[in-house]
Design brief:
Blueprint: H1 11-14, H2 19-30, H3 34-39, H4 47-61, H5 66-70, E1 72-75, E2 78-81, H6 94-103, E3 109-113, H7 119-127, E4 132-137, H8 140-152, E5 157-161, E6 175-178, H9 200-203, H10 211-219, E7 229-233, H11 239-248, E8 252-258, E9 264-270
Parallel strand pairs: 3-4, 3-6, 4-5, 6-7
Antiparallel strand pairs: 1-2, 7-9, 8-9
Helix pairs in contact: 2-4, 6-7
Length: 273
């Protein structure tokens, strides 16, 4: 695909992906920055470099997400390591971080349930070092990734391996947030695009898409003070159902917030007094 002797400046014309993906993979394979692609435009690729870049491009052409190929993804202005053990952090989830920060009292305790790469917990802890942030996940492999991300971003986060509330039954928090598995079993999106490569257990509850949300809504009041907030990300068509779950659970101020595309993406409420 790319032959030895090609120059860095010629890569955009030689590679078959869109310009942004071409640049990301070229920078990764050649260990140079975007500026380096300009300043080193006359640099000639070695045979090893050409082979490495061709292999990365082939992986992308087979559908593997860019984030997994390069092992990184930016989220909330921070750099996160990602691999196939965790979901790829997405810009829409930054809404959940913003909402959490707006509702987190000074020196408060926050719980992130199903943390995955640690994106939400690390972003909050990095922004609010006064907060005591705990993050849990059932996956030991995901927690390894999350711990590394907290360390790399100098964020103080306590990590717990737990199947939802099981390992923290005696603990209380001022705010609980979660981006749980919410895609229904058999949904066509699970076999399309990047989702084909992401951990299925972090995407779907293997049921109707609401079972994890029901568990969180039912269990959260035991861990929240009166008027403490519960905030949850959910699917594009689930806002009304999640509001109903919260209303049935006697939460107050139940509402949904829209993501960058105008879709109701996060729903929350406050524990009844």
């Amino acid at each position: 695909m790319v032959a030895a002797g090609a120059t860095v400046g010629a890569l955009q014309a030689l590679l078959p992906l869109d310009p942004l993906e071409n640049r990301i993979l070229a920078c990764h394979a050649l260990d140079i920055t975007r500026i380096g692609m300009i300043t080193q435009s006359e640099r000639v690729l070695t045979a090893a470099e050409a082979a490495a870049l061709s292999a990365l491009v082939e992986r992308r052409m087979q559908g593997e997400p860019i984030a997994y190929i390069v092992g990184r993804r930016e989220f909330y202005g921070l750099d996160f390591a990602v691999n196939a053990a965790v979901l790829i952090p997405r810009p829409d989830t930054e809404l959940l971080v913003e909402l959490a920060l707006e509702r987190l009292p000074v020196r408060a305790r926050m719980l992130d349930m199903g943390t995955g790469s640690g994106a939400i917990a690390v972003a909050v802890a990095h922004t609010r070092p006064d907060a005591g942030v705990t993050a849990l996940d059932v996956s030991a492999a995901a927690l390894d990734v999350a711990r590394a991300n907290a360390l790399a971003n100098r964020a103080a986060v306590r990590f717990v391996q737990s199947d939802w509330f099981a390992a923290i039954e005696a603990e209380a928090f001022d705010l609980i947030v979660s981006n749980p598995p919410y895609i229904a079993d058999g949904d066509a999106h699970l076999v399309q695009g990047d989702l084909r490569f992401e951990p299925v257990g972090a995407l779907t509850d293997h049921a109707d898409g609401l079972s994890a949300l029901r568990t969180i809504v039912a269990g959260a009041p035991r861990h929240l003070p009166p008027q403490g907030w519960l905030l949850m990300e959910h699917g594009y068509d689930q806002a009304a159902q999640v509001r109903a779950l919260l209303a049935d659970g006697r939460y107050s101020e139940v509402q949904s917030w829209r993501d960058l595309a105008g879709i109701e993406r996060v729903t929350g409420g406050r524990r009844a007094a």
